[in-house]
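Structure (tokenized):
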């Protein structure tokens, strides 16, 4: 999944997809979320080194 529109839309799509899968470690889920963000937003969020996907979503 890649962010095309707004961060809000991307978060909504990511949450819907992540509910469909099981047993993905939090760190991997966070990496997947960050990797799908637009490059500039990903860079800014990664500066804070978030470890939870929920923290990354708030920072985005």
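Design, position by position:
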């Amino acid at each position: 999944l890649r962010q095309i529109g707004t961060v809000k839309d991307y978060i909504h799509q990511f949450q819907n997809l992540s509910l469909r899968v099981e047993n993905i470690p939090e760190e991997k889920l966070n990496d997947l979320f960050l990797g799908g963000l637009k490059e500039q937003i990903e860079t800014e969020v990664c500066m804070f080194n978030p470890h939870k996907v929920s923290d990354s979503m708030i920072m985005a």
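Reviewer-requested clarification: The chain has one domain: 7-59. The helical segments are 7-18, 26-36, 39-46, 53-59.
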